[in-house]
UniProtKB/TrEMBL annotation:
Record protein name field: Transcriptional regulator
Biological classification of the source: Bacteria, Pseudomonadati, Pseudomonadota, Gammaproteobacteria, Pasteurellales
Domain HTH tetR-type: 9-69
Pfam family, one: TetR_N
Domain of life: Bacteria
DNA-binding region: 32-51
SUPFAM superfamilies: Homeodomain-like
Keywords: DNA-binding
GO molecular function ontology, one term from the record: DNA binding
InterPro entries per the UniProt record, alphabetical: Homeodomain-like_sf, HTH-type_Tx_Regulator, HTH_TetR
Keyword NADP: no
């Protein structure tokens, strides 16, 4: 595999950082390529060497988060106990909460980290559960949807918060809520 030129990597990082900085004060729809150029202090041809448009830029940022954080965590979610997963996931998500929070608010017809996350979780649940439970496709679809809504809610709770979250307490909170579903 060919190693990426450090200058290219640095330029992409400059552009991505500028874009995220703009998301702190402007809605995605209001951000222009010119805004990104001004904050990143790069020229238009440099931007277009790396990205076709701002949609491709945010797509790459979201893609990197999926590849490096979301998908690996999703794999672990179904291979280790819930409490162990909370101990792994909460610190990782908390560490990247500011970036997740910024990208979570972007919701267009083509770009939505929240919808992507929901669908990834739902589909992974269905895929794993298909081999674990003897259920119809409709039942698995319902279970996957329910699991995804709960997961999205927990994820939002972590990224929208400002204080440090104790994974043990989060796990107990989940257990408390789920106990209402088990009431006879």
């Amino acid at each position: 595999m060919k190693k990426e030129d450090p200058r290219i990597k640095r330029t992409r990082m400059l552009i991505q950082t500028a874009f995220l900085k703009l998301l702190e004060t402007k809605a995605y729809e209001e951000i222009t390529v010119q805004d990104i150029l001004d904050v990143a202090e790069v020229n238009r041809s440099t931007f277009y060497k790396h990205y076709l448009n701002k949609e491709k830029l945010i797509g790459q940022i979201i893609g990197q988060l999926k590849e490096t954080i979301i998908l690996p965590l999703l794999e672990q979610r179904f291979s280790i106990p819930t409490k162990a997963f909370a101990l792994v996931a909460v610190p990782i998500i908390s560490e990247h909460r500011s970036v997740f929070r910024l990208l979570w608010q972007v919701d267009t017809r083509r770009i939505s980290l929240k919808k992507d996350f929901f669908n990834l979780v739902k589909n992974k649940y269905i895929s794993v559960s298909r081999h674990k439970f003897d259920r119809t496709s409709a039942e698995l679809e319902f279970q996957g949807t329910l699991f995804a809504y709960i997961s999205v809610g927990m994820f939002e709770h972590i990224i929208q918060g400002t204080e440090t979250i104790d994974p043990d307490i989060e796990h107990q909170n989940i257990e408390d809520v789920l106990s209402f579903f088990n009431m006879g």
